[in-house]
Amino acid sequence: MAANTTNKTAKLIINGDEANAAEFPILSGTEGPDVIDVRSLYKQTGMFTHDPGFMSTSSCESTITFIDGEKGILRHRGYDIADLAEKCTFLEVCHLLLYGELPNTKEKEEFERNITMHTMVHEQLQILYKGFPRRSHPMAILVGAVASLSAFYHDSLDIYDPEERDLASRRMIAKMPTLTAMAFKYSIGHPFVYPDNNLDFAANFLNMMFAVPCEQYKVSPVLSKAMNKLMILHADHEQNASTSTVRLASSSQANPFACIGAGISSLWGPAHGGANQAVIEMLDMIGDVKNIPEFIKRAKDKDDPFRLMGFGHRVYKNYDPRAAVIKDSCYEVLEELGAVDNPKLAIAMELEKIALNDEYFVQRKLFPNVDFYSGIIYEAMGIPTTLFTGLFAMSRTAGWVAQWQEMIADPDQKIGRPRQLYIGEGARKVLPPNKR
Ligand code: ACO
């Protein structure tokens, strides 16, 4: 699939000079806004576009994920996210992201076998983990551990060989739950639990998190179903900050494991994947439903840096479709755990109700995002707050590797190299220290 060239063009008249207007093709995709192809802008005008934060810039063609932020739509390869979350396993969605189609029964079995063959990590990695302080943030460990896989698999990886790319992708997806659970076990001083390939992907992760060698641990089917759903909801989200980081880092043909490490670093920030941790911290800080008005007031105050965490999104100007699915799962999980009267859930629901009716939030189209309810489920499952973003990284790895594969296979792929508007000093001479 490729973008369609339309017969529409965009003209750029600079300083009223119509005779020398620059002209650009307009491309259209299958859905979503058309784009003005400005690749020849510099050649035609000697100027660059200036778009910090990529507010109006498309950086690539992609067939993986479509978002309509105004309508609150998220689809992977044409399938609605709620449909996928309801009917599929996470590994089926990984197959969809990587290969373009949901697997049939035979492909599903093969893919699952293929992934489970790679769930173990090199024993040497235990030594790497043990070098970190016990109190390290799990994201710091994950950045290091995932990037370190490049040391284990560098020589066996030719990124221009589709089979080797595929093997690297499957390794990444398979090893992330193991590495994430190891970060948790290390932080609490428990022995690492090896993967159990008799369990499904989500249940295996919960087992590595919560099993201990001295007693039997049985994964609750309700919790593994919820974990499966959460993984699907976080699997991909087109060209967000971490995915764009992975693409940009890999555009230099660097080792993909190291590039996923870069993506994890980007995800860690509270404006991105780190928001799920920040939501729980905020709900703790609010403490009681009666304190909500004070925090709403603070969120609206431009002199106060406080923001309602889990609210707002660069693309969604409507309810984040993932948040709607998570909200329903939240009740199911809390019911299973006998914790429906969870005070954080009560605060979150009241906060949402007030914000959705408040002029400030309505006007700016600030709705709950994927992170608003996910933390409540994770916390109820016994996952520590600092590991929430690690769980996000584990799931998003599917999207990262799919986007990486798509980029490397694209014949138009070039090293990413944005330009800038220089506003520093003009040319000057170095003076001796006593004259500066
Ligand atoms: N609370 C209060 N006000 C907000 C919030 C919020 N959560 N989010 C945005 N606003 C306000 C801004 O102050 C700004 O107001 P103004 O127009 O009066 O100046 C307006 O809404 C637009 O906000 P921007 O920051 O310009 O929007 P942007 O698209 O750059 O930011 C972001 C999006 C970073 C997600 C922002 O909404 C935010 O910080 N939210 C809280 C953090 C969060 O939940 N992040 C998770 C995002 S989802 C994800 O990455 C998985």
Percent range of helical residues: 40-55%
Strand proportion: 5-15%
Secondary structural class: mainly alpha
Low-confidence stretches: none
Task: Report on the architecture of this protein.
This protein has 436 residues and is mainly alpha-helical. 50% of the residues lie in helices and 6% in strands. The protein has helices at 41-45, 81-87, 90-99, 105-116, 124-130, 138-153, 162-188, 201-210, 221-233, 241-250, 256-267, 275-286, 292-300, 321-336, 343-357, 359-363, 371-381, 388-409; strands at residues 4-12, 22-28, 35-36, 65-68, 73-76, 79-80. The strands form two sheets. The protein has a three-stranded antiparallel beta sheet with strand order 1-2-3. The mean pLDDT is 94. Acetyl coenzyme *A binds next to loops.
Summarize this structure briefly.
The chain is built from 18 helices and 6 strands. By secondary structure, it is mainly alpha-helical.
Q: What are its keywords?
A:
436 residues, mainly alpha, three-stranded antiparallel sheet, 18 helices, 6 strands, binds acetyl coenzyme *A
